[in-house]
Amino acid sequence: MGQIANTGQRYGLVAIVLHWLMALLLVALVVLGLYMVSLPDVGFDTRKIKLILIHKQLGVAAMMLVALRLAWRIGNVLPALVAGLPEWQKVSARFVHLSFYALMLALPITGWLMSSAAAIPVSLLGWFDLPDLIGHDERLFRAFIVIHRWLAYALIACLVVHMGAALAHHLVFKDDTLRKMLPGRG
Ligand code: HEM
Ligand code: HEM
Hints:
The chain is mostly helical. It has four helices and two strands; from the N terminus they run αααββα. Helix 1 packs antiparallel against helix 2 (about 45-75) and helix 2 packs across helix 3 (about 85-115).
């Protein structure tokens, strides 16, 4: 099954589970987010409101997972990139990874700020309401919607580059890049 912690060469089980669980969750959040905002705001159809509530709950779950992931990332060795990569690929890979962390933090926080500005509480998985980060402010509410949307577009752009690179390394260059992020030997 491989080991729990990272080694200098490959990711350990905890990092792998967190990576793939969050990849699924973030893709689901983007698809759900884009779909729900396309629905009409009509009073008798509560589908949009229900989906926004689900989106907020999943978004809060992502916020907790990213805190765990960041702690694990800081407390663990970072596996080296495969040997022999050209400099531009090393720089762009690390740049996309860091951008992902920034986006994984900024998206839930702007979601929370948006809800606070709208004076709609954010529940922590139905357990209790999180405190409001800022007071009721319609102008800031609209601004955070736009910021949240553009952060999501940036996440999509990073994902396209990151997935493209992972698949190219696996299928075209046939190196160990993808295997390092899959459970297995070593
Ligand atoms: C990593 C986590 C998240 C991702 C990837 C994400 C992604 C998205 C996307 C793609 C949209 C549609 C944007 C548009 O086209 O206008 C959206 C909208 C929205 N998100 Fe998130 N979101 C996340 C977390 C959260 C959190 C934690 C909350 C609140 C607690 C939240 C609240 C909302 C709300 C209320 C909208 C609807 C905005 C509107 O009325 O136009 N999101 N999100
Ligand atoms: C929104 C979804 C995703 C996010 C946020 C994400 C984020 C990350 C981050 C931050 C790293 C660096 C390791 C770390 O610090 O944890 C990483 C590594 C990696 N990811 Fe993703 N990832 C996503 C989706 C995917 C997908 C769909 C694939 C495959 C098609 C993939 C393949 C990889 C591989 C192979 C590595 C190891 C790269 C290396 O160290 O050489 N990721 N990912």
